[in-house]
Amino acid sequence: MLEPSATAWFDGVHARGVLEAVDLTQQPDALSRPGWWAVVGEFEGRVRAWRFADVHVGRATTAPQRPGGRWAGPGTDAWSSSMGEEAYRAGVETIRARIRGGDVYQVNLCRVLAAPLPATGRGPDASALGRRLVAGNPAPYQGGVHVGPTSDDPGVWVVTASPELFVSVDGGRISSGPIKGTAAHSAGLSSKDRAENVMITDLVRNDLQRVCVPGSVEVTTLLGEEQHPGLVHLVSTVTGRLDPEVAGAADACRQVLDATYPPGSVSGAPKSSALRLIRELEPVPRGPYCGTVGWVHVADDGSVRARLAVSIRTFWWSDGMLRFGTGAGITWGSDPAAEWAETELKAARLVALASSTAT
Question: Are 18 and 6 contacting, i.e. CB atoms less than 8 angstroms apart?
Fold first, then answer.
């Protein structure tokens, strides 16, 4: 066992004690081995997984309690941004110019907030922040993974309150729930939001078609509205039936990721052009933000169930810094000031919770 004090929690599942850690870029068929795996992927492409020893299913969705564990976050004035308002608005104008030139249709432009949070050993108590988020900002894909570093593994520290499904796999079917369009209230959702959602939904449909039976991919919900604390989102749902040759392959999870990663809703369309522009405009890597976080369960008979979220509304800690990402989707119809305001809206509630010193 690499790390007996490791913890992970998602969707009523609590897990402790890591048996093995893998990098899926180096071991693409690792998730063919039976067990329950926590998965964390970075936006830039690296995806890692940890197979846990002690897994309990059926509890309420909350973070595990560590004796005496309290969350002591940074001060509200300690946060800095990788892009200020002027730079962000300039980035929006650059994307609009590229859209006008025909290079791209939509790009998700993000910035990373960071605050010093020194800690020793395994780092601050991720489960304490997890409980704080569950109480103050409940989300359908709430969870976290806290694995301390060992001689064989650098570990991971991620806590999420994600509202967005990246992919779920169950019974040979795959689903995705892209979010595009965010406002404080339903009345604030615009025609730009709706057009953007349709654009990204079509991109996700195309991604899923790469691993599904031809003709089986369909949009079951288009432009649905979902209420979340302080926000409303436009959410669509795309489903399909996995190609049996993919579902039965030892590297099935890797094939699904190769077809869909990084998530379309947080990259852009066309995806390859959007990724090039993101690398040009964003001054720091996103890391776990806009990647994926969740779990994969491989049964003894080789069947797979998975639930991976897009890791938005997500905190991660490393090198003495607590980080949180926020962004907005940019189209020709974007107003730079409004897009900046959207990034502020998405961050405000969660950063305030993480800056609290409450239990």
Answer: yes
